[in-house]
Amino acid sequence: MRVGVIGCGYWGPNLIRNLLENRKCTGVTVCDPDPASLARARHRFPTVECVGSVDELLRDDDVEAVLIATPVTTHFALARACLRAGRHTFVEKPLTATSAEAEELIRIADRSGVTLMVGHTFEYSPPVVKIREIIESGSLGEIFYISAIRVNLGIHQRDVSVVWDLAPHDLSMLFYWLGEVPTAVTMTDGAFVQPLISDVAFINLQFDSGKIANIQASWLSPSKLRQTTIVGSHKMLIYDDTNAMERVKVFDRGVEFKDPQTFNEFTLTYRTGDIVSPHVSAAEPLGIEMDHFLECARTRVTPRTDGESGLRVVRVLEAIERSGRNGNRLERIDWGRAGTGFVPQDDRGDRRRPAGLPALVNNGAMVASRGTDS
């Protein structure tokens, strides 16, 4: 099918490149209101067609699917227009600026009978998929806690905080790995460079199962770190996305407790065993994600990261933001009849999701080129 890409700022060219390399895509039409951005796209990708407005893009009946890589405040209005026009729609993370907007997009996609997918790219990353396999195998034992660090010097955004820019990556991975969503969150943040736009955030999440998680997100760090630690009752795991050779390491380490048999008996035993780095594919996650979107659009199979996946992340982001506004207060999340557990999409993208969340309605905005972290 022919695919349209709205927004060719920082991230859009990466989408265009992967689409042009995919045999399921017969051609790409790029849409951006900025003539300079279109000129750069045309110079880098000579075979693409270029248009300056969304209306012009949607008037082309050959364009069957659209990818949106613009500021989050524009996602709702653009996606709504594409879905209403009967186009399969992919939206970069986060899906929308509010959960009300996400609910509305899900309803429109269902009514229109088209695919809605959100760009939670890390759920298509081979190391992340491998980690889910390891967790599901039970080799780590019961998961106690997860700690994630995602920091760098920049890229500072002008329209969203570091929470909305970086945290969706780790939130989507947590939900994919654990198969559950948090019931309470807290957040401590700081806006040190731009007034009222947080560039550092420390996020804590609590789950009904007893698991806890922490996410540190920052645009204000001397070095780039992308590291997650998962601690289980049997083994521990470190995922380092900046380590090209050994992105996943499993540590046979832990603490064993036994009931004391005599007074003052030491009841803890520390275990140190092998360190194993399993093989993971070097395939580009974005290429896998683009192929999955095109296949789901062609077959109408529900994407692994469907609209409800995007909704879950947005609802948690809203709760995190409320906690920061309310002096780091604990914010509880009521998931209603959907419950706090869900079965994530399997690798085929089959529909396995909870019941819908309460429906609300809101409005959207306009279009511009987007710069975002990957």
Outline the structure in words.
- The chain has two domains: 140 residues, NAD(P)-binding Rossmann-like Domain (Rossmann fold, 3-Layer(aba) Sandwich); 154 residues, Dihydrodipicolinate Reductase, domain 2, CATH 3.30.360.10.
- The chain has nine helices and 15 strands.
- The longest helix is centred in the C-terminal third of the chain and has 19 residues.
* Largest sheet data: 9 strands, mixed
Shape: globular
> How many separate structural domains?
2
Number of DSSP helices? Answer: 9
Question: Could you tell me the radius of gyration in angstroms?
Answer: 21 Å
Quaternary structure:
single chain
What is the highest CATH level, the class of the largest domain?
A: Alpha Beta
Identify low-pLDDT runs. Answer: 347-374
Secondary-structure arrangement, i.e. CATH architecture of the largest domain? 2-Layer Sandwich
Q: Output mean pLDDT.
A: 90
Which class of secondary structure composition applies to the elements? alpha/beta
CATH topology of the largest domain: Dihydrodipicolinate Reductase, domain 2
Q: Count the E strands.
A: 15
Distance between the termini: 26 Å
**The CATH fourth-level homologous superfamily of the largest domain:** Dihydrodipicolinate Reductase, domain 2
> If strands are numbered along the chain, what order do they take across the biggest sheet?
14-13-12-11-7-10-9-8-15
String of helices and strands:
EHEHEHEHEHEHEHEEEEEEEHHE
**Strand residues, percent:** 25-35%
Helix coverage percent: 25-40%
